[in-house]
Amino acid sequence: MLRDFREYGIGNTPIVELPVVNGNRIILKLEMKNFLKSIKARTAYWLIRYLPEDAKGRIIVESSSGNLGYALGYFCKESGYRFVCLIDSSIAEKKRERLDATGIEYFQVEQEKGFDLRSSRIRRARHMMESGQYYWINQYDNPFGIMAHEMTTGPEIWRQTEGKITHCICPMGSGGTIIGTGKYLKKMSQKVKMIGVEPFGSTIYGTVDAPYINAGTGLCGKPGNISNNSWIVDESYTITDNESIDLAKNLRNSFGLGVGISSGMAYAAALRIAAKERGATILAVAPDGEDAYEKYLR
Predict the structure, then answer these.
(1) pLDDT per residue over 21-62, tens digit each?
(2) What is the 3-state secondary structure (H, E, C) of the chain?
(3) Domain with 282 in it
(4) Both 147 and 205 in a single domain?
(5) Which of 94, 121, 140 is the last residue of a domain?
(6) What CATH number is given to the structural domain containing 225?
(7) Could you tell me if 158 and 272 lie in one domain?
(8) Which residue of 22, 33, 68, 135 pairs with 55 in a disulfide if CB–CB is 3.0 to 4.6 A?
(9) Structurally, how many domains does the chain consist of?
């Protein structure tokens, strides 16, 4: 049985206020300060804490670009489950090294003809589940992944902004962060706008199916978490890898914030919103740090 999430140091990550743009406050919520150094500690804890009865005696499996797999590996070990992480060739080398260093089992899935890398991973997880030996958590359509953010991320943001938040930006992959956070914030104020952001090449809300390097974000099509709760997302932006990388570097060089590529993507959306608003309080969730992205951010 897992301990209370607070005992692991999950949540209560700090915010940092950046310079005002066009009369708008811009705030980053630094999830690299979370337990296990990413926002995925929140998700993984809830996914394992609330595993159903039919998962018992089976090997837990999930598709991941690295951060969630690392966190799931930790909490599965705490709970006595064996875990296998499905990765692909796009995983950052540092993330693969971290899986190796912590002894987390993983299997690299090759891209299937007619499917992108992430879809190939998901298809493999589904097939493994059908064998009966494995239990696929399915982060893409799991209410407990949403609950993690409705219970922690949303309340923290509301408290930290003293209820003044007008726009909340979340990078989208499985959709758990934006939907869970949005459920709480919209319960507190219907005026809060939830803004999704994805890499160019992702088709959650974008229209072009193409390769991208912004791991952990994006998907081919809408995940169940989002399609089942579409009323939460008010607006979405699609940002290229190059712009995301440039702005992640800018956050490091100008403000000393060593954030990852998806954080640069969220910051890009914040600047777009600030260009057309006045007097807004815009908070962007920064999912992880720069450690795994040296190849792109050096």
Answers:
(1) 999 999 999 999 999 999 999 999 999 999 999 999 999 999
(2) CCCCHHHHCCCCCCEEEEEEECCEEEEEEEHHHCHHHECHHHHHHHHHHCCCHHHCCCEEEEECCCHHHHHHHHHHHHHCCCEEEEECCCCCHHHHHHHHHCCCEEEECCCCCCCCHHHHHHHHHHHHHHCCCEEECCHHHCHHHHHHHHHHHHHHHHHHCCCCCCEEEEECCCCHHHHHHHHHHHHHCCCCEEEEEEEECECCCCCCCCCCCCCCCCCCCCCHHHHCCHHHCCEEEEECHHHHHHHHHHHHHHHCCCECHHHHHHHHHHHHHHHHCCCCEEEEEECEECHHHHHHHC
(3) 5-35+142-297
(4) yes
(5) 140
(6) 3.40.50.1100
(7) yes
(8) 135
(9) 2
Q: What tens digit of pLDDT does each residue of 170-182 get?
A: 999 999 999 999 9
Q: Say if residue 23 is in the same domain as residue 85.
A: no
